[in-house]
Amino acid sequence: MPLIKAGTAAADPYAAVADEAPLPEGPTVVSLTRFRKDRDTLLARNTPLGVRLKSDESPEALGEDVARLSLIVLEFPKFRDGRAFSWARMLRTRLRFTGEIRATGDFLYDQLSYMTRVGFDAFEVPETITPELYRRALGEMSNVYQPSADGRKTIRELRAGK
Fold first, then answer.
1. Other C-beta atoms within 10 Å of 117: how many?
2. Cα angle 16-22-23, degrees, rounded to a multiple of 5
3. Which label site among 22, 71, 100, 125 has the fewest CB atoms less than 10 Å from its CB?
4. pLDDT tens digits, residue range 55-70?
5. What angle (nearest 5°) sits at the alpha carbon of residue 80, between those of residues 113 and 153?
6. How far apart are alpha carbons 145 and 100 in whole angstroms?
7. Residues 43, 64: contact at Cβ < 8 Å?
8. Given strand 71-76, what is the order of strands in its sheet?
9. pLDDT tens for residues 135-152?
C-alpha cells in the first residue's frame, strides 16, 4: 500500500518483520508479541524501531519503552472499529509519544481528518486515496467541536473568544 506522510507520497524505510523471521539491517517494524519476546535485542540494535499494534492491543502495553520507539503502527481491522483513534490520542496526550503514528488497515477517506486530529501523521492508504485527496480531506472541516491532540480551538472556545 502507498504511504502518505506530511501530505505527500513517501517511501517506507521500515521493513515489516514476521514474528519468527530473522531481523534485517535497518529500520524494522515488529508485532507487540515479537517486541515482548526480543525486547532487549531489538532495543540494543541502535536503529529505528517500530511496533505494530492490533486494535485490541493498548499502547500502554509498551510501558516506558514507548519513548524508545520511532514508529507505532495502529491497525484498523474494520473501518467501524475505532479503538485506534483512542490509542493514537492516548499516545500523543497521555504517553507523550513524539514519533510517527501510522494508520494501516480498513479506514475511510471520511476518517482521515479525524485521524490527523487525534495524532496520526502517516497513513498506509489504498491506491484510491492520493496525496491530493488526503489534503482535501483535511480541509473539509473548518471548525471542530471536540478538543483533541492537535490543539485546534473548538467552536465553543472560538465563540467565547478564547
1. 21
2. 55
3. 22
4. 999 999 999 999 999 9
5. 30
6. 25
7. no
8. 8-10, 3-5, 122-124, 100-105, 71-76, 49-53, 28-31, 15-16
9. 898 888 788 778 788 878
**The domain that contains 23 carries what CATH number?**
3.20.20.70
pTM of this structure: 0.89
Report whether 17 contacts 28 (CB < 8 A): yes
| 70/47 Cα distance (integer angstroms) | 9
Residue type, 85: F
Length of the chain, in residues: 162
Structural domain count of the chain: 1
Cα distance between residue 9 and residue 32, in whole Å: 27
Residue 3 pLDDT exceeds 90: yes
Look at the block and give the residue holding cell 490543539: 151
In angstroms, the CA 23 to CA 26 distance is: 9
Instruction: Please answer whether residues 121 and 100 qualify as being in contact, where contact means their C-beta atoms are separated by less than 8 angstroms.
Output: yes
Q: What is the mean pLDDT of residues 8-32?
A: 95
Q: Where are the alpha helices (DSSP H) in 82-138?
A: 83-93, 112-118, 131-138
Domain that holds residue 75: 3-159
Q: Distance between CA 32 and CA 61 in Å, rounded?
A: 8
pLDDT at residue 51, rounded to an integer: 98
